[in-house]
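[SOLVED] Need 3D model of a two-part complex

Original post:
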Amino acid sequence: GNSVTQMEGPVTLSEEAFLTINCTYTATGYPSLFWYVQYPGEGLQLLLKATKADDKGSNKGFEATYRKETTSFHLEKGSVQVSDSAVYFCALVVGGSNYKLTFGKGTLLTVNP
Amino acid sequence: SQTIHQWPATLVQPVGSPLSLECTVEGTSNPNLYWYRQAAGRGLQLLFYSVGIGQISSEVPQNLSASRPQDRQFILSSKKLLLSDSGFYLCAWSPWTEGNTIYFGEGSWLTVV
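Solution:
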């Protein structure tokens, strides 16, 4: 089956620190990979995605590269802000599965001023 | 542009009462539609998905049901709520022209008392 493993945290950083949230996956087939962000009390927002090996998704200063050889899709940001405090979910979808997302358990990020 | 609307945003219901959560998508046709639940602790569970009018697939046995009476409308229902139905419910959609990306609504907080 399909699965996503991400560091559960919580992760606490100071403003302007470097962020890495690790995500690895297993999939039956060729997955597309996603990072979603959930701010307190809100729904999930698509942060970035990558659909094939070596693709780099990027948005709002966040980046993640689809690494097929290591089955990873780690999320990075060079300088976090207080407003980045949220829960981050790594997810995958495999074509032919009616596009059902498989999620990691989420990583709570808190950025202190 | 496409948008998703979900309501009500918050509701408190007594045990044994009925439930109806509604979701509509605008600006697209024939989307895949999904209901997810997020219980305390952040994990996301797929409850139902639909690839067309009247076509509903259930992922887990439970006290809930879903219906799709129109192309862009998805309804989550229960005849008699249980305490364990409390949680954060998220409607989501995937455009058939970009089938592997799923977008979420703002969510509905349900508390069963």
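Edit: The CA atoms of residues 13 and 66 of chain A lie 25 Å apart.
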